[in-house]
Design brief:
single chain, 6-stranded mixed beta sheet, 4-stranded antiparallel beta sheet, 10 strands
Length: 128
């Protein structure tokens, strides 16, 4: 079973950038996608973006499209989330997770129940 470790969070001013990393230990061959999710204070966990591990297909929720970019480095077994033009509403704990469901990243939504192997999360705070 793969283990995921997120890193790269921190405090950034509005309009700034951060790059999150999701490092996988163990083989990801049994999984079809890795997704990024976030939990803001007082809110439910929501999907942010995902990437297909075999086809590289990507998906973004509307609130981050054009600002966030997901990518992968297969040699390092790591998925990244580049976050630009950040807003206070991006403040949350960010998690990555894996899915075994075929073509899950091609669907319109990013349902957290379709994912597992959750990491411990990394805090992102956007504030002056």
């Amino acid at each position: 079973q793969v283990q995921l470790v997120e890193s790269g969070g921190g405090l950034v001013q509005p309009g700034g950038s951060l790059r999150l990393s999701c490092a996988a230990s163990g083989s990801t061959l049994d999984y079809t996608a890795i997704g990024w999710f976030r939990t803001a204070p007082g809110k439910e966990r929501e999907g942010v973006s995902c990437i297909g591990l075999s086809d590289g297909i990507t998906h973004y929720v509307r609130s981050v499209k054009g600002r966030f970019t997901i990518s992968r480095d297969n040699a390092k077994n790591t998925v990244y989330l580049q976050m630009n033009a950040m807003r206070p509403e991006d403040t949350a704990v960010y998690y990555c997770a894996t899915s075994r469901i075929p073509e899950i990243c091609g669907t319109p939504s990013l349902p957290p129940p379709a994912y597992g192997n959750w990491g411990q999360g990394t805090q992102v705070t956007v504030s002056l």
